[in-house]
Design a protein that fits this description.
The chain is of the alpha/beta class. The chain has a domain of 153 residues: Rossmann fold. The chain is built from ten helices and six strands. Strand 4, helix 4 and strand 5 form a beta-alpha-beta unit. Helix 3 packs parallel to helix 4. The protein starts with 8 loop residues before the first helix and ends with a helix.
Length: 238
């Protein structure tokens, strides 16, 4: 006859409480704090503010700074805001373009950011390159004005009816437009392809190139590095 092992009520309750605790931990929402300092006052902030605030268990808290400042100042502002904030950020990002700024200034901003633990979402030559990559691969330089025209043409080829699309630099609708008609995964892959074509540390010559996809991956919960850091923080409480 098989022997029956009985578990006393106290032990059962302890197991039940442990299971309940584990289930709560698995469902617990995790706050992820971002500081994003942008060169532009509206274009980039409006785009990033449109991302979903909740991805799985992650709830994103985005703080913004900057606006109307040059490349080097963006990085300096990011460092200043981070160091003077009572909030401990999981990520601090500086978002800026090459535009017509001197090569030394552009490269210096990237180097300074790395030295101070600030991540860079830079574009050479313009942030609009990231938008364009949602529709087509581009590996030859073009002007900011040409980016706008090409984005308009790409979208109007896809919009079958209704009012024609006119690119507005400070639009609050670009994220929604890109989600509807573009392909963010494709943009990410093409941005990675552009980056892979350059080996030098003279980032001013990496044209066209953009690292905006790195910030986008983090906001989408697709950065394994950030995910690992957050989970480690949850375990250690630091």
């Amino acid at each position: 006859m098989a022997r029956t092992i009985k578990i006393d009520n106290a032990l059962k309750k302890r197991f039940a409480k442990q299971k309940e605790k584990e289930e709560k931990e698995q469902k617990k929402e995790i706050k992820v704090y971002f500081l994003i300092v942008c060169e532009g006052a509206k274009t980039e902030p409006n785009y990033f503010k449109s991302f979903p605030f909740k991805i799985g268990r992650y709830v994103y808290d985005l703080s913004f700074g900057g606006g109307g400042i040059n490349t080097k100042k963006v990085v300096e502002k990011a460092i200043e805001l981070r160091d003077n904030s009572p909030q401990k950020y999981d990520r601090v990002w500086a978002v800026f373009d090459k535009d017509s700024f001197p090569s030394t200034q552009f490269n210096g901003a990237i180097q300074k950011a790395k030295a101070h633990g600030v991540h860079c979402a830079w574009s050479n030559e313009a942030f609009e390159l990231w938008y364009l990559l949602h529709f087509q691969y581009r590996n030859t330089p073009m002007s900011r004005g040409d980016y706008s025209k090409t984005i308009e043409k790409s979208l109007n080829n896809l919009i079958k009816s209704g009012k024609k699309f006119k690119y507005q630099k400070n639009s609050r609708e670009m994220y929604a437009v890109l989600e509807k008609y573009g392909d963010q995964s494709q943009a990410t892959n093409w941005a990675k392809s552009l980056i892979s074509q350059h080996n030098s540390k003279d980032f001013s010559k990496h044209n066209p190139c953009t690292t905006v996809y790195k910030l986008v991956e983090e906001l989408n919960g697709k950065s394994q590095k950030l995910n690992d850091e957050i989970m480690q923080k949850m375990k250690t409480g630091k």
